[in-house]
Amino acid sequence: MLRTITRSALSLLLAASIPCTKSWSDTALTIGTFQSYPYHYKQNDSVVGDAAETVECIMNKINKPFKIEFYPRVRGAQLLKSGKLDALLAYHSFQTENLHSVASSPIVFERWNTYFTSKDGENSNLRWKSLLSRSKLGSVRGSSIDTWLINNQLPPKHRLSSFKQLLKMLHQDRIDAFVADEESTEETISSSFIGHNFSFNQKFITFSPLSVHFNNKKYADSQFLKLFNSHIASCRPKSLKLREDENKWVLDKAKEIFDQHINNDIIRNKVLKSNLSFPQEKFDDAQIVQLEKQWKLQKTKNTGDLVSSVVDSKESKLLRDVMHNTGGVILEIIVMNKHGFNISSTDITSDYYQGDEEKYQKTYLAGANSTHLSKVEFDDSANNFGAQVSFTLSNNGIKIGAITLTIDIYKAFL
To answer: pLDDT under 50 in the chain at which residues?
Structure first.
């Protein structure tokens, strides 16, 4: 069910008389966007969709007057670049296109699939990139997916003016496949093709975040952007979720790497040695806090015996080699001893103690053969989607520690 913003596009300009002490709140902010059903689009005189509603929610929380104006994609980007727009609501990667802007944290996540009609099922087991590379592709000209396909050396054979045309052409076998957001596809079929029976196969590609891209000169260094980001979590209606078969794919990929390259005597001996160096069965909170303080101090200085013992050991160098050899599928590897302390990792982790996190509690504490897959999370700084797959590490059937692999979701499905 779509939620409708009751104010019209013209009335989205909130009352300028709202009291506010911030200088950036004195004038209305103009946000440009384009039609992107069902996230931000016009329906009669209303602005409809999750993304537009999320923006309104945030602006209301921070008492910032604003209005949303619709433009063609290229025109909106030009206006933002020239400084004639304060912001642009667009997919996250717009920030890489030299628009002189800074992106907010994601406000909505699209879920992109490839849709295809392989009648004999021959291509159904192919990974999506292999499938698309051998397909006659269609796209909506100028859309974010159209740009993404071209940037990924997958130029569409047919570039059409509307998404409805794409659906018809795939149904008529005039194209073999297209890439689209799942919710957009389902909503378009249900609203525009009532009673029509489309029979498509689909394969997950990636999540795509939508962000608000603010003019660099006005907002990049202000408190406004931090304040805007701080309210996203309470306003954002979307979450990142894989399906059961996709979860299995990620788990199988991580287990293959774990079994072949990490679950070996070198890593096990490191864990056993660490366990012997901590003979006590339990650590109290004061001991953990003290070790965490030591870790964070050394992390700040990027040097120290504790940090060095974790990231500069031969075992950690082995883990980095494993990570690099996966072609970016693995983003990080952490090895924990029986107490939940990080004893080897590919990089300096934010915390030394992992024992209060699911990666340890749902593996080591759960039993010798336990596995845990975390939810998918977006990393703003790295601009990627990751999920942690954790395993109990055992020696001759006896649990001795735990290992976590952070998987790049996009690259895991390439």
So the answer is: 1-23, 120-121
